[in-house]
Amino acid sequence: MSTSYLQRPLLQLFTTAFILVSVTKLQAQEKLYRNSFPLRDVTLLDGQFKHARDLNTQVLLKYDADRLLAGYRKEAGLPAKASIYPNWEGLDGHVGGHYLSALAMSYASANDAECGRRLDYMLSELKACQAANAKKYPDWGAGYLGAVPGGAGLWPQIKSGNVSIVWKYWVPWYNVHKMYAGLRDAWLYAGREDAKKMFLDFCDWALDITSALSAEKMDEMLASEHGGMNEVLADAYQITGDEKYLVAARRFSHKMLLDAMAASSDNLDNKHANTQVPKAVGFERIAELSHDEKYGKAGSFFWETVTSTRTLAFGGNSRREFFPSAASCTDFVNEVEGPETCNTYNMLKLTEDLFRGTPSAKYADYYEKALYNHILSSQHPQHGGYVYFTPARPRHYRVYSTPNQAMWCCVGSGMENHSKYAQFIYTKVKDSLYVNLFIPSELNWREKGVIIRQETQFPSSEQTKLIIKKGGGRFKLMIRYPQWVKEGALGIRVNGHRIPFEQAPSSYICVDRLWKKGDVLEIDLPMQNTSVPLINVPHYFAFMHGPLLLAAKTGTEDLNGLVAGDSRWGHIASGRKLPLDKAPVLIENDMASLAGKIRPVPGKPLSFAFSDLKIENAADVVLEPFYKIHDSRYEMYWMALSPGAYKSYIDSLSVLEKQNQELEKRTVDFVAPGEQQPEADHAMEKENSSSGNMMDAFWRDAKNGGYFSYKLNTQNETGLSLMVSYWNEPDDQKAFDIYIDGKKLDAGSADKKTAKPGLSNVEYIIPDPLLKGNAVIRVKFQAGQSTETGRIFKIRLLRK
């Protein structure tokens, strides 16, 4: 934040009395999410989650609010107060909306007055931007509150029916959705009534911009990533009761996904994962409010298929941001761009929504797994930086963001993740209190006049205790019997007396009684070790202790970019890929026995070692909770082979790994045409170009005078070549040219005449004069007037 902002006259009006909003306003959270408790009513006690939240609050206050607001002021035509953040340019403003949400949550949960002041400052500035937009753009700007660069050239075109223009911008609806959610949350968690009005005015703007679009035009537009637009419009319906918002929420529901999920058809292969999850969140919200069975089926089936067939042991999903097919799941161990934190952030939102309709323990089981192993692990425990990708590749590592530098999407969602740990510990249905998570905390159940304190050191201890600290009365305590506790092993005692029950794991046990102050309920939670095969890759295993993923540190060599700066690709752990054939291998005939060969390390809580098991390429392996591993390479999935299979498999893997390592050493830059984020990262430009998927790989082509181009980083090197992966048909005679910064490099068809049918790599030497003095070059593939480039799959800039 700019150092002068606190001295501005407007903020001198924000007194402490104003910040302490009335109780009635702070109940907005219960109005929107009927089973939840306001964050202010759940106090986190000392433990890892309180530490993570408090550290996150400190990190939030290091960000410069004026820079987060700069794009909004620019688009509204207001004088600049600070410069726009440079990283991820083209998506200006997206973190600003997340920041509003995080401030509101931290203000409510941590009772942090500075977060409240910062929130009010941002709202006052945004209110001025919204008013300025209405004056500057009278034909379309009333209610608008976005920072999409060049929005004046976009939104009127959409209003007139030219929805294809969204592809010339970087996911504009996704961008503005973050501000919708931020305004909603400023009201929802912090009770700011101005934010609610701004939110509803913004919703009215969306209705106006899209009012003339047919259902077909809407669906065409929704092929571009649009965040949870259907969710926030459903929220507007619940807030106001006005049917127009529910109609709009349905119009913003992408039929490609809705129809398939409602029909129990999994069409997620090779789709951008975090584009789809928010859509499903919206489906479920619409179902919750309208009781529409189709939307309800779509939301629940999406959750079922993602959690059961597309989720790794730590709760995350996707690689290179896309859902792989079953045949491509080996990418999880080959690639370094593992599950994206944003995906799990949104999956937890969907889980909360589903649980509100059906309070099933399976939802809480997944929530707990993802919370401990992905969300908690995505924050650095000392400096508080956020993680984008969590690689599952053996012996790789994660990188962390830096305040005011790396403005990735997972920075925005990360700000929220660590602000809302109190949200799902307890939920309610009438006179039933659900104890979903075993986190030290104190609940003020105001409507019952009861305060309940949960004391625990879980997961370091296998027990938790609930104490009635104040009040009493008859109500039901619904205690989760976790899926990871063996049947018959859970124990419940009230005031020392054992409570009998018949439920099995992954259920809730009802303790219904007249409670009084001083009553104590104790829960025994014995944890066991289990092994979990990697989805569709059965010779790789992860190990769990109760709900915790166990992993091992494997070294600290070449942690390039561990704490990222402002580089475009700093969110990717770019250090050397260590060869898979040199990673640890567990040698065992009976794979079912693996979990039984993990033993506790004496004197070290939550530390384990393999026992009576042969391990190649490793010695003295120590397993510990994954969320505790930072600033290190690690192993979360372990190759396990029988003695007979080991030799032949490793020999073949060694040949492949040698080829891969040699190619990696030569690679200066790489882009995967047809994949959303790599194309955005490399500033793609295109005309008459299309993309698709074939053999679980993405491609792009251009036709009839069209082209596509990317910026590639040369790292200021010369002596480079361009390797292009083509798909060739028999007698294929595609005709196109390749240009480097506008100068023709070579005719693509010339080298392809000798290529075999199928996928071929063709390497072109780039003359040094085209490279000298250029840190970045633009590589363009240009089709002839009546010809096409053919399908191009991968493009690499290589050292010769």
From TrEMBL:
<dbReference type="GO" id="GO:0005975">
    <property type="term" value="P:carbohydrate metabolic process"/>
</dbReference>
<dbReference type="Pfam" id="PF20736">
    <property type="entry name" value="Glyco_hydro127M"/>
</dbReference>
<feature type="domain" description="Non-reducing end beta-L-arabinofuranosidase-like GH127 catalytic">
    <location>
        <begin position="41"/>
        <end position="422"/>
    </location>
</feature>
<dbReference type="InterPro" id="IPR012878">
    <property type="entry name" value="Beta-AFase-like_GH127_cat"/>
</dbReference>
<feature type="domain" description="Glycoside hydrolase GH146 substrate-binding">
    <location>
        <begin position="662"/>
        <end position="798"/>
    </location>
</feature>
<dbReference type="InterPro" id="IPR008928">
    <property type="entry name" value="6-hairpin_glycosidase_sf"/>
</dbReference>
<dbReference type="InterPro" id="IPR032275">
    <property type="entry name" value="DUF4986"/>
</dbReference>
<dbReference type="InterPro" id="IPR049046">
    <property type="entry name" value="Beta-AFase-like_GH127_middle"/>
</dbReference>
<protein>
    <submittedName>
        <fullName>Uncharacterized protein</fullName>
    </submittedName>
</protein>
<dbReference type="Pfam" id="PF07944">
    <property type="entry name" value="Beta-AFase-like_GH127_cat"/>
</dbReference>
<dbReference type="InterPro" id="IPR046544">
    <property type="entry name" value="GH146_SB_dom"/>
</dbReference>
<dbReference type="Pfam" id="PF16375">
    <property type="entry name" value="DUF4986"/>
</dbReference>
<feature type="domain" description="Non-reducing end beta-L-arabinofuranosidase-like GH127 middle">
    <location>
        <begin position="433"/>
        <end position="527"/>
    </location>
</feature>
<dbReference type="Pfam" id="PF20620">
    <property type="entry name" value="DUF6805"/>
</dbReference>
<feature type="domain" description="DUF4986">
    <location>
        <begin position="555"/>
        <end position="638"/>
    </location>
</feature>
